[in-house]
């Protein structure tokens, strides 16, 4: 850890107040920056990250070694790792953000009123965004890019397990900002690992406009409870795939295997598989073989275990569990109504999918499942800002206000009314 980081732990409240003051001042500057300047910074940061691949991997190796020593589980270590592909993806994500339309200053819904005035709405930055996250160092680049493009200043507080990785990425960010003529204070990475920094950040109403937490359920519950600043959050991802009795078997197998095994430690990974009774005996043995080959532990209801007698019994707790591990709960249900009822009861409003060849049933599922992402014949792993064309995401919100689903550029702005007149007065 750097000398500066060690020094600021002496007086965390003072350090965080100064960080907030700098962020508020920088927010004014970035809010009026031209799109070209912001895009130049994003591209410069991407280049700096690519050129620093070796340094980033070296810093990450220090974090991974510490993680192994401290007994981090496999899911957290997977999130923590920076390899060549993930570093390249960070750079690609930043360039994708640079190519996206700048939402700041866009005007919509302009209408003439009977009085003669024109009324519309303009997109403007939120201001200063505090982001609290665990493990994933790529969030540092993604969050910085989205906040920068949307005209916001950001205070990023990563977990202590990723401190070296985050500081190395921060150096690339500041290099890119300087190349574009923007102040380093636009993106600040908190340099102390003292947990008191989180408590300070979520109470700095004078300086911070919104908090975005990304991490475990415990972290997000704490922030939601203690924050004085508005929070955009999701607690956990209990994602479902429902295989309808009118599903194509090959399609159902392909999607359901990918939804679970493509990556285990992510919030959009399927945790519960629901299967219609009429198709269960045809599809479950095939899926069980695929999951067995991938090393996935299966836990099933009574009806599932009649078909797959060698799997474990699913308890009531399994239906609401976010495993983030190669474990899958399976339940056989009577049909679409039962599947929707199960999702309503046990789901987390994150991502749920149906596999079916019936358009009416697909439409019912889309309408009635009240999650931030609802899918037809597609893997839940697509619930991601990059896959949705947002360039990247700052998080996935299961709230209904003010943003929902993957939070990209528009989710980091708000709307204000604008009125155009020509000497008009109200009579």
Polypeptide structure, described:
The protein is an alpha/beta fold. Helix content is 44%, strand content 19%. It has 15 helices and 16 strands. The chain has helices spanning 3-8, 12-31, 35-51, 53-69, 74-80, 84-99, 138-149, 163-179, 196-201, 217-226, 249-261, 277-294, 302-307, 336-346, 359-368, and strands spanning 107-112, 118-125, 128-133, 153-157, 187-189, 210-214, 239-243, 270-276, 297-300, 312-313, 327-333, 351-355, 373-376, 396-397, 405-406, 413-420. The protein has a seven-stranded parallel β-sheet, with helices on both faces. Strands 5-4-3-6 form a four-stranded parallel β-sheet, sandwiched between helices. A three-stranded antiparallel β-sheet has the order 1-2-16, with no helix packed on it. α11 links the parallel β7 (239-243) and β8. α3 runs antiparallel to α6, α3 (35-51) crosses α8 (163-179) and α6 packs parallel to α7. The termini are far apart.
Task: Please specify the SSE layout and strand pairing.
Layout: H1 3-8, H2 12-31, H3 35-51, H4 53-69, H5 74-80, H6 84-99, E1 107-112, E2 118-125, E3 128-133, H7 138-149, E4 153-157, H8 163-179, E5 187-189, H9 196-201, E6 210-214, H10 217-226, E7 239-243, H11 249-261, E8 270-276, H12 277-294, E9 297-300, H13 302-307, E10 312-313, E11 327-333, H14 336-346, E12 351-355, H15 359-368, E13 373-376, E14 396-397, E15 405-406, E16 413-420
Parallel strand pairs: 3-4, 3-6, 4-5, 7-8, 7-12, 8-11, 9-10, 9-11, 12-13
Antiparallel strand pairs: 1-2, 2-16, 14-15
Helix pairs in contact: 3-6, 3-8, 4-8, 6-7, 7-8, 11-12
């Amino acid at each position: 850890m750097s000398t500066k980081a060690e020094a600021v732990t002496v007086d965390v409240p003072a350090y965080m107040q100064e960080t907030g003051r700098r962020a508020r001042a920088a927010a004014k500057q970035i809010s009026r920056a031209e799109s070209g300047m912001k895009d130049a910074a994003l591209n410069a940061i991407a280049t700096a990250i690519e050129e620093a691949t070796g340094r980033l991997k070296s810093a990450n190796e220090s974090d991974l070694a510490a993680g192994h020593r401290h007994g981090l589980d496999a899911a957290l270590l997977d999130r923590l790792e920076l390899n060549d592909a993930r570093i390249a993806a960070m750079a690609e994500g930043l360039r994708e953000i640079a190519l996206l339309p700048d939402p700041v200053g866009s005007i919509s819904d302009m209408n003439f009123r009977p009085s003669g005035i024109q009324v519309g709405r303009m997109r403007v930055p939120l201001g200063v965004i505090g982001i609290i996250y665990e493990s994933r160092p790529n969030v540092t680049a993604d969050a910085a890019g989205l906040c920068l493009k949307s005209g916001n200043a950001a205070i990023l507080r990563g977990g202590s397990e990723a401190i070296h990785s985050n500081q190395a990425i921060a150096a690339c960010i500041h290099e890119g900002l300087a190349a574009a003529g923007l102040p380093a204070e636009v993106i600040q990475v908190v340099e102390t690992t003292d947990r008191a920094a989180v408590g300070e950040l979520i109470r700095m109403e004078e300086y911070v406009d919104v908090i975005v937490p990304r991490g475990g359920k415990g972290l997000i519950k704490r922030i939601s409870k203690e924050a004085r600043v508005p929070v955009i959050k999701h607690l956990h991802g209990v994602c479902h795939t429902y295989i309808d009795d009118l599903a194509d078997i090959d399609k159902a197998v392909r999607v359901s295997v990918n939804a679970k095994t493509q990556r285990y430690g992510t919030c959009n990974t399927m945790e519960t598989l629901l299967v219609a009774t009429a198709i269960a005996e045809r599809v479950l043995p095939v899926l069980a073989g695929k999951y067995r080959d991938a090393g996935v532990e299966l836990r099933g209801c009574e009806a599932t275990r009649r078909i797959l007698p060698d799997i474990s019994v699913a308890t009531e707790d399994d239906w609401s569990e976010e495993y983030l591990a190669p474990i899958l709960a399976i339940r056989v249900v009577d049909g679409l109504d039962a599947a929707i009822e199960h999702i309503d009861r046990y789901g987390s409003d994150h991502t749920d999918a149906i596999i079916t060849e019936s358009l009416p049933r697909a439409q019912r599922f889309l309408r009635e499942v009240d999650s931030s992402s609802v899918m037809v014949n597609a893997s839940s792993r697509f619930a991601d800002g990059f896959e949705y064309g947002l360039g990247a995401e700052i998080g996935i919100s299961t709230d209904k206000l003010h943003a929902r689903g993957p939070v990209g550029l528009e989710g980091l702005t708000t709307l204000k009314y604008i009125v155009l007149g020509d000497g008009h007065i109200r009579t």
